[in-house]
Amino acid sequence: MVLPGVYIFTATNCSKEFSYKLFNMGFIPGVKLRVISNNGGLIIKIKESKIALNMKTANGILLKWNKQLL
Amino acid sequence: MKDSIKIAIIGNPNVGKSTIFNNLTRSNQQVGNYSGVTVDKKEIEIIYKNYKIILVDLPGIYSLSTYSNDEIVTKDFLLRNKIDIIINVLNANSLNRNLYLFTQIIELKIYTIVVLNMIDILESHDKKIDITKMANIIGYPIFTTIANKGIGIKNLLNYIIKICKKNEIEKQLKTKAKINYGTEISNEMNKLNNLVSINIKLSQFPKTWFLMKLLECDFSILEFLQNKNHEIIKQIYASNKYIKKKFKKDIKTIIASKRYCFVESIISEIIAKKNNNKRFIDITEIIDRFVLNKYLELPIFFFVTYFIFKFTFSFSKPIVFLLNSCFKIIGNRIPVIISNNYLQSLLVNGIIGGVGSVLGFFPIIIFMFLAISFLEDFGYMSRSAFIMDKITSKFGIGGKSFLPLMLSTNGCAVPGIIATRMLDSKHDRFITMFIVPYMICGAKIPVFALIIGAIFDIKYQSIIMFLMYIISFIIALSVAKLLSILTKKNETIDSYNFIIELPPYNFPPIFKTLLSKTWQRSWLYLRKASILVITTSILTWVIFSAPWPINSKNNIQQNNIANNISKIIEPVFKPIGMDGKKAISLFSGFIAKEMIVSTLSTVYSVEYKNKFITLKERIRENRDWKPLKAITFLLFCLIYMPCMSTVAIFFKEVGAKYKWLMLMTLGNTVLAWIISFIVYQIGKFLKLGI
User: Fold this and answer.
1) Is B97 in contact with A54 (Cβ distance < 8 A)?
2) Out of 2.30.30.90, 2.40.100.10, 3.10.290.10, 2.40.180.10, which CATH number does the structure's domain A5-69 have?
């Protein structure tokens, strides 16, 4: 369960095509993102944009919790 | 000096490209505060200061690759056409990601004008962009606009003419900023360039862009090279292998990182906070705390939907009454002025009855369009797609399918079917195309408003209309589930993935955007309906008033073409509680759904000879219309075959496959009959509404 907070995006576990779409939307390994809420889907802020992902997509992205960024 | 300029408008989804396009061309392309509204290119030619300007509005994209349909449309258009100028529209509030696309556009070597849109929202967040500094860094002209208020658009058009007069287009391309991809990537680019430059066909592509796409192993480029350029393909794989070994990352990640580094270096220089101490209240965050709350999101969604109907019916009621009174007065005056019985009947029962019965509901349509247009521009649509994804995914389609369904509700099934092009998954696209016609579109509204208004008490009308919308969704989702099981997902792109950008909430300008958009949609509806309604009203009047057999002189009410047809078809419709007359009105619905109302009007007005009574009153007085029969009639209308324009666009979009055409027309009619039969027979058995 991903809790609200600041994370570092590390990798995707989706199909190649979908990973590329995420990539173009700013999901590049090492990028910081803020999980705003988790309500059965994730609402995150990445590169000044607010993005909503369903659980399937959220499960396909690997995030690293970073205490220093809090 | 050129006399013709071709301009392409490009940008991320939902940055205001179509609004700028509409402002520049004074046209009425559909716009909305959610991504995917434009799914195909739109081209309009204008004459400005003696220049012929061809403007092309392209679908919103995140990159110039070939992942989605939108990207393919945009990329193909840019490469296959001679474009003089690109207008790259950026959302000033989200420069980081918007400039990422810009880094790819500049590699196309086409004159580019950067437009920073929604600058007012940025300023309201207490931020400021140093435009002069930004223009100096990137080396491209920059304009600021507030497109939904029409601010800054004229400057843009004047600038285009100015640069064309000075022939500055060629000059600009020589002095622009370049992205530093690093020594290793540059070396690999050079190796590839040596192979590409000797190939005349390949050297025609913009050099840097093409080399980047080769290194990124872009699907379509590799497909293009397949079996033709073994040396280049070998080099691509060698470069990828080398970079991966050297940096422990794949080449795409490194290229994207370099582009984002370039973007961040620009942003750090140009954005300043006006007042660091001032605390900024983010309205979007506050609203989203409730709208996207785990427990509140669905109740709020249903409340918003119900509110649309309450608003529509409450506000339109006095105008509908006024309009119907006008038709009543005109209808009753005609027998006084015209003495010829046939002409009287044609005018009263045919034309005024038919046209009046449909146009009488026009205020309802205007208020419905107004409410939904507000939600579209306010920014709620993307959120509702996200909320609905939790439900739709259980039925085999993603939440994005909800947007074409809403487009259909907000007007017509035809744009709804076209909008399915925004869906990445072919599977979702097909199913969504199939279920879009189940929605209560603008043409079905008069049918539902008429029957519900005539049969049910005023207290329950909004709630029954709301329930009919819920039923239309339940039917659509059930059919989606069935089709999902039958067609089984077998795709490389996983269609259960759902990602959508949530735009900031924005109160749309009332006159410039909201009312003008509502009027454009309503006018389109009125124009289409009025021609069809007049023609079919006359035709229906003829079949109900012309004697048949021809020699039968007495009792035309019994011996006319329609009655003879209705006698033949009645046995099929009797088990679902319909007589032949109602069945005939359903047949006319194949031309357009509004025709059901105009046909019903003629059917019942003929019985009243030349006395004009509104259709609602006639249905109310008719003993054959009971709540149960009304509900089964509406259910049948909801499900049976769509109108011919919807069928035609569906047939085209599914690739002219006859089996799907048969399923859409015959299959849906059989399904409509079965569901109506079950409901009618159960209702009759339980003695409900009879």
Assistant:
1) no
2) 2.30.30.90
